[in-house]
User: What shape does this take?
Amino acid sequence: MSKDRENNRLWHRRPGDRVVRVHRGRVSHLRRVLGIPTLFSVGYGDVGSSIYYALGLVALSAMGATPIALGIAGILFAFTALTYAEGTAMFPEAGGSASFARHGFNDLLGFVAGWSLIFGYIVTIAISAYTVPSYLAYFWPPFKESLVAGPAMAMGLVGLLMFINVLGVKESSFLNLLLAVLDIILQVTLIVVGFLLLFEWPLLKSHILDFWPSTANLVFGVAIATIAFTGIESVSQMAQEARRPEKRVPAAIILMIIVVLVIYAGISLVGLSAMTPQQLAVDWPTDPMAGVAHEISGAIHPEEIALRVANDPAQVIVLHWLLETFRNMLPFLVAVLAATILTIATNAGILGISRVAFSLGDNRQLPPLFSRIHHNFKTPVISIVVFSIVAMLILSQGFYSAGVFANMGGLYAFGSMLSFALAHASIISLRVRRPGQRRPFRLWPNLNIRGRSIPWTALLGLLGTAAVWIVIVAMQPYSRLVGFLWLLGGLLLYSLFRWRARLSLTKSPEKREGG
Amino acid sequence: MEFHRILVPVGGSAADGDAVDLAVSLAKRNKAEVLVIYVVEVGRGLPLDVSLAGEMKRGNQVLNEAEERATEADYEVVVDLVQSRDVGPAIVDEAVEKEVDLVVMGIPYKRRFGEFDLGRVVPYVLKNAPCRVLVLREPGGGTG
Assistant: This one.
């Protein structure tokens, strides 16, 4: 059987291959099986989707300083990703920041983190769905021009995905991986071709400096730029599934941080080389990558390039044909790939909500209704339907206001920054309150205060995310109103449920049996 | 051909019993160990370690039936309940982890769009399992 043993080594697990052993009714242990490439590609597949809307959204306020705003948000992204790595390795649970806050503080703050996270997910669903029609406008322009067709299609898409998720139809891990790879190839192609054809330092400098925003707009732009890194929570969920997480998760996260930041920097520089921030914000706010592809396409002159590069007439003909095909196909490819990736990002948001709401329900932080699993479909139907409807309500504002897109950026920052700030604070709190607890992945470098080591990245992440949240609350009345109403509604629901169930507001109750 | 450890994935179909019988008769030759597993598939909208009471009850019931079938043949089997995102990879993973020599799978005679259909689990295991795989189809079909 030595050949069989040899074969065993050839069997590589793929996403979705993780196994939990239940031993006749009791969960005994998790099998952690994912490697660095899989962790990276799945993580990138989630985070990378936001580039299809973030550039335009950030340009609306940060204008010429768009690359700087994205860069600062990128640093916050890196800090938050690292905090998630430590937290997830300690608590491999589905709740993400809600779990960290429950362990680090109490049930009430755990609920606030989870409820804010759900809000962030709802906005991710809405914003991803909202931008799908803009990319499909390549095939039918009213999707972008009409105040009816675009939002109607976006709402229809959320409705369809809600239905699919209620039924529990499986999504293909292979498709996700394939799209992540295609996505990276397309974006790298856009960056390389864009730099070759469009990059001129004096022009880029003038687009940055001539359109430099006011300090208030720059600060607001940084806050909005945090939307570029939606999906970080999903990465943490994948991080749970890694074997030797203390080594593989940080490696995958660092690789992802580098690739994401390089691609964002490249695309934003190409974008600002191709057009002014004004054009980006006004003409291509919801489909900035289509704008970049359009400009690159326009800069390709097949005959001129072919004659310059090749000498042999046969080579000139072949090169001319290749360049012409590439020029004609580029906007089409971007439209199809962006619409597909954004649809999958919308679906990832629904799955994320489903997991977080289930986790809150399971820990008795939401009424059991939210964690009730349909006996036939085996999905938490109520959570999926309720939160998808909220996303559709946000989208419905698109019927009478084109400003709904800009507002969604603020709403996302309100929910996610509060949740991420609590995640950072929880990791710090756990270092103080439970210094001896096993940490499979431990952040460094640390600041030593009274014998306790506080990770610098979590400290800076806390300050950064809290500052962004305060900026949004101070500067965006719409996000402030809707965000606080959401929080208030959630706290009322939480308090009423806990009061009726005769449970403490802060202490963790015993878990209920069964699913 | 000698087998030291045989894996029998069961899913509650009528063909499970025959698969257990076959595995036991093969195991009896040289006192091989027989492992019977039931895989609970968990959707991506739920945590993988979720406790799906109904599914676990059904899984335990199917495993009990497999255990009884083996007891009737005067043989002892080891049973296990596993949760996974996908049934196929869970079976292959189990085969690798436990270093089994043989996987015995019982499948019902199923038609899809008028054609005999193997489903998605059996082809996955046939393609990816590093050991030998025996597929036992229940009687049926005939004229097609």
In short: Strands of chain A lie at 19-21, 29-30, 446-449, 452-455. Chain A is about 70% helix and 5% strand. Chain A has a mean pLDDT of 85.
